[in-house]
From TrEMBL:
S-adenosyl-L-methionine as UniProt keyword: no
Keywords per UniProt: DNA-binding, Transcription, Transcription regulation
Protein name: DNA-binding transcriptional LysR family regulator
CDD domains xrefs: PBP2_LTTR_substrate
Lineage top rank: taxon: Bacteria
Family named by the database record: Belongs to the LysR transcriptional regulatory family.
Lineage: Bacteria, Pseudomonadati, Pseudomonadota, Alphaproteobacteria, Hyphomicrobiales
Record domain HTH lysR-type: where: 1-59
Pfam (any one): LysR_substrate
One GO MF term: DNA binding
């Protein structure tokens, strides 16, 4: 009978493409991983991998069994998570969020995870949406909470709801009527986050659909910096409405309405489609219960 360790070696060699990468991931020597794969092949009386190239590839026989191996490993992991007392679940859990989550409800989520899994070591990463989703796909992250980018996500995910956005600026930049056409918006410098952010991705498509060309932009690396530049009168900024309403209420920013309005940010909790899926799905559900994009306090953004 094929053992769990043998199937695990086959799974990670296929997933990562080389014996060296699989050994590094499993914290084993390359020879140990190779031996386990060879043992599996001997038990099945077939070659699973074609080793004639630098990156190993599945043979026809390997392709016919790899999905079954993955299913077995996933079921084994789910059985362990289901049967195990959460107090005994341990290990590192690396997850990514965008800045907006970090300065609003991330502390509540961290507290909920620690209460449910006190022995888990949490490793948060704060970044733009694009690099976070890349980290999820290359498996350097277990879970990502971020606005989804355009196109097919191609990952298991749980919708967390939409966050409306609004154009905002300081009265020192513009003190006219609070409604402008889209082509008037671009007469002002636009304060936009980097090309790696979801808002940049959404706004470029929105302007394209409105048949309006962007003229002047000032690129910032985080939402708070964009808001601060807007408050200082440097340009128009598209910001999460609820999150920055305290700045509007204080008079530091004003909302400028457009037709059509700027696109909302559709947040998701996305996670890996592998043996980490069961624990990731549970934490994604915690994220859905905890999400609230109001700022933690006015001091954070003042």
């Amino acid at each position: 009978m094929i053992s769990h360790r043998q199937m695990e070696a086959v799974y990670w060699v296929n997933r990562l493409g080389t014996f060296h990468a699989a050994a590094s991931h499993l914290n084993l020597s390359q020879s140990t991983v190779s031996k386990r794969v060879q043992e599996c092949e001997a038990l099945l009386s077939c070659e699973i991998f074609d080793r004639s190239t630098r990156h190993v590839r599945l043979t026809p026989a390997g392709r016919s069994i790899i999905s079954l191996i993955e299913q077995i490993l996933n079921l084994q992991e789910e059985i362990r998570h289901t049967a195990r007392d959460p107090d005994h679940f341990s290990g590192h859990f690396t997850f990514g969020t965008t800045e907006m989550v970090a300065v609003s409800w991330l502390p509540r989520l961290v507290s909920a995870i620690r209460n449910a899994y006190p022995r888990v070591v949490l490793e948060p990463v704060i970044d733009d949406a694009a690099p976070l989703f890349r980290g999820l796909r290359d498996r350097s992250l277990d879970l990502v909470i971020a606005p989804r980018l355009r196109g097919d996500l191609g990952l298991p995910h749980l919708p967390l709801g939409s966050v409306a956005t609004s154009w905002m600026c300081a009265s020192s930049l513009y003190d006219g009527p609070d409604t402008l056409s889209v082509d008037r918006i671009v007469e002002f410098p636009l304060l936009i986050q980097s090309e790696q952010s979801s808002i940049y991705d959404l706004l470029t498509q929105w302007f394209r659909e409105c048949d309006v060309s962007i003229n002047r932009t000032i690129i910032c690396n985080n939402t708070t910096a964009v808001a601060e530049l807007a408050k200082a009168g440097f340009g128009m900024a598209c910001l999460p409405s609820t999150h920055f309403m305290p700045q509007v209420d204080s008079g530091a920013l004003r909302i400028i309405h457009t037709s059509p309005p700027p696109p909302p940010l559709d947040f998701v909790a996305a996670y890996r489609n592998d043996r980490m899926s069961p624990i990731c799905a549970r934490i994604a559900d915690m994220a859905r219960a905890q999400n609230d994009f109001r700022p933690l306090g006015s001091a954070i953004l003042s």
